[in-house]
Amino acid sequence: MYAHTSKILKINLSDGSITHLPVDEKMARQYIGGRGLAARLLFDMMPAGCDPLGPENKLVFMTGPLAATRLAGSARYVVMARSPLTNFLGESYAGGSFAHYLKRSGFDGIVIEGQSPRPVYLVIDNGQARLHEGEGVWGLETKEARDRLVAKHGKDFDMALIGPAGEKQIPFACIMQGLGRAAGRTGMGAVMGSKRLKAVLVRGNHDPDLYNKARVNDLVKANARFLIEHPSTKGFRDFGTGRNIDAFNELGNLPTQNFREGSFEHFEKISGETFMKVLVRKESCIHCPVRCKKVVEISGSPYGDVLPEYGGPEYETIGSLGSLCMNDDLAALCMAHQLCNAYGVDTISMGVVAAFAMECYERGLISRDDVGFEVHWGDPRALLRLIKMTASREGFGELLCQGVKRMAEKIGKDASQYAAHVKGLEIPMHDPRSKMGLGISYAVAPRGSNHCEGFHDTSYAGENAAPEVGIVKKVNPYTLEDGKPGMVIAGENWQSFANSAIMCRFTVKETGGKRNVLTIVDALNEATGWGLSMEEVMEAGERAFNMCRLLTAREGFDRSMDVLPPHFSKPQTRSLAKGNVISSEAMAHALNEYYELRGWSPEGVPRPEHLEKLGMGDVSRSVPQGRGRG
User: Fold this and answer.
1) What is the C-alpha to C-alpha distance for residues 184 and 165, in angstroms, rounded to an integer?
2) How far apart are CA 532 and CA 524, in angstroms?
């Protein structure tokens, strides 16, 4: 099979066995790879209702068919398992070069099951896999662990590893790709820690066979030129993903003070331009000309040295550990980012947890006696202490590390009114009062609130913004009506395909006057020989989306969980989104239309007959159509 190794590495950590799973071409074409194939494997192999931190849970690393083609944006991988944070689908993505070398090592993906009796790490070297004793790196922060592994195995291995937070099974622990990138969301680091797997090292120099290598190479070069010349790329190259802080602030899309507002009075202090003061260089994922990853360094800050090895805060981190907590201290923000990467903690969840704690403190729901110190808005030292307590599970950190949903349940009173989550997953740094279609995506996302699920209204604001995807009508960001549910579905199906291919969303331009949608599809076809039409591509994205929804449906989902937190039914008081609200009635109406267009039941579960149309008849009979497992 072209563009694939046709093998998935399977590791059973309970008995130490290492085997291979074949990749069926029909299934690969149906689900493309990445997200779709990982979800299908999880559905087939993971028992429903398993303990997320138990041996029956499966941890799946999966690349896409475009990995190792050198197409800009293709060096990404997905990690899936049952989430210990939400108990639903766990799904997270990371870039860098891990996917590139995993594919070149001879495997399309890895399935990890069981539970090792002692700490181990996995080394994959050009098709050979071996488990090593991990006692010498267990308990170490990510930089120390990486340095020891490099000293032992050499610099030419890439690695994904966990920090102390993963070892302690913090429900929102992440898997670090090196030290500056993370598969951050839904607690995949905790699952890895529960299996006592510290790291996965990969090395390989074998390119997969491509259907038309010369044509793929031409498309790789053409796409690189396109990205270098694209209007949006210069901003990414200059300032990273924080390039739009000022615009987001004006739009009401910069979450502030635990989502009370969407604009921050001191946004200039944490803008992309301000970060230039501490920037030492820019980096990129392998074979990408965009170079959007900032690297910062601060010697002798009031909070300690900020090291360049940890990269630098990107937009989601700037929002979550900055404006959301009303923290405008640049050095503290960089240190907060460094601590999260050193411990292996998701910065989005950590920031929302910290902001929730600050709000609960302000409202008298928790006290100084509970926390051990005062927790005021914008206090940088309090923020850093909260991160350390969370990662170590010490004192009040034992409550913090549970995430805002469980925190609110334990605090009681009216704390749940201030807990910003969907299905237990903390809200990312985009305010749906300024992008109401995104509010639908947040509500229905299989893993919980997810800004990478597909639809950001402001991206589709122009006429005929994304004709290849099926969005030709100008989008009004401030309404849930006027065909918005159908537009959201189209955007989600496209992004679901991109997450299966797998492509970085910053290198896929599906909107505006300059687009590379057809280049991406052409590259996939020339690599695989599949000859997929745009209609088939969109259907593959829809199939993957439904596969993820099925995983959540069988783990206890019911419609009441497709709901936004109370924050967004209250108006912002400033910015262009001033006065905007998303009422529960308006969302319920939008969801009715969305479910119908999706081919789902009124309970929000894919109907068997619709799954049959998608070629998923083999799973349609195992779908609960009423309330979930409960």
Assistant:
1) 12
2) 8
Could you tell me whether strands 59-62 and 17-22 are parallel, antiparallel, or unpaired per DSSP bridges?
unpaired
pLDDT in tens, 338-349: 999 999 999 999
Are the C-beta atoms of residues 298 and 306 closer than 8 Å to each other?
Answer: yes
Q: Whole-angstrom Cα distance, residue 112 to residue 305?
A: 37
Q: What pLDDT digit, counting tens, does each position of 14-26 carry?
A: 999 999 999 999 9
Of 122, 13, 103, give the one whose Cα is nearest residue 62.
Answer: 103
The label of the residue with tokens 């390039």 reads: 243
Q: Residue 454 carries which DSSP code? A: S
pLDDT surpassing 90 at residue 241: no
Q: pTM for the complete prediction?
A: 0.97
- pLDDT grade for 203, boundaries at 50, 70 and 90: very high
For residues 432 and 410, the answer to whether their CB atoms sit within 8 Å is no
Would you call 59 helix, strand, or coil by DSSP?
strand
pLDDT of residue 594: 98
Give the span between the Cα atoms of 461 and 550, in whole angstroms.
32
Per this entry, what is the length of the chain? 630
Euclidean distance between CA atoms 580 and 595, whole angstroms: 24
For residues 273 and 10, what is the distance between their CA atoms, to the nearest angstrom?
Answer: 45
CA distances 332 to 242, 329, 382, 502, 616, Å, are: 17, 5, 10, 34, 49
The single-letter code of the amino acid at 149 is: L
Task: Compute how many other C-beta atoms are within 10 angstroms of the C-beta atom of residue 335.
Answer: 26
